[in-house]
């Protein structure tokens, strides 16, 4: 064999052996069973993971509601908390990018929004926390709040902070029909500083009123607590309200209208402070009888007979007075006690001429403070009681206005769901 052929053969064998050695280095590394490689130069995946874990933050962030949640509460469901660390930043935004105000607690372990959330809205939360070594941890979540179709709200009266008369019930009107009345009623508490027992009474599926057996005690404070957040009022329909409000009871004023004598006696604490001549409903339009509560006050308002069923042959209202002075509502169906400037002064105290309201002598424009109507208006509160008698008509229905006082105590209690 020539020298050149011998050299080429040796080079080919060397190349082949080199390839085998390379393949062996890639494919023939074996573990010793303890996580170390056979050649001592590599690390197992477990070792790699362990090393990475040692470098990761120990802070554990939790976002509520959970990512992907639907029908979340608009009140107190949203919250970010951290264990083994402190929060450094939290961002909460709506899907369109509007930021929601919130605050991290003084110890930096909790974040909550400082405003009530909106219904049917998707929120995105991004949180960052640090552990004691300063290592950062991150967490993100998205959730959607309960929709109007799946929630109910109770509109209540009287207003928070108001001062009302002794006959003012707490009246709550729900925007959805309630089928689980007991669950909803249990989520509502009404109490008085007077210690009077207060009981709820349902009028149909949408209205719940609360009152004591007797009128509220003058000077007392009434507290309404709504703990309806998450309470199921009907199939798939949940409450969202969580609030506490108070209102105050003023002096005890009850006025007694006698349609037979055509007078009204205004009493405070049981003593007559003024007698006012009135004109009640005419024989063909008698005024309801019973205990009625003033629910609204208007210095001037329009009264059109067509709105309450008094129409002429052409379908127009039998009357349409655009500036009725000193009007105070006694029923939902249109009964008022109000000023009357169009009637002769001789009518009051002598003849019943109205379409069912109680009229008091007044002046056009409602600016004369010396008229009987002006005096009564200025001395009356929403929630004052007007008791009407001797009209010859039936007693007003207890749900026609805020007039549940026309049920005796046993009847009232029978309307409670708890």
Automatic annotation (TrEMBL):
This is Lipoprotein. Residues 253-389 form the L,D-TPase catalytic domain. The keyword rRNA processing does not apply. Residues 1-25 form the signal peptide. PANTHER family: L,D-TRANSPEPTIDASE, L,D-TRANSPEPTIDASE YCIB-RELATED. Coiled coil: none annotated. The active site is at 338 (proton donor/acceptor), 357 (nucleophile). GO terms for molecular function: acyltransferase activity; peptidoglycan L,D-transpeptidase activity.
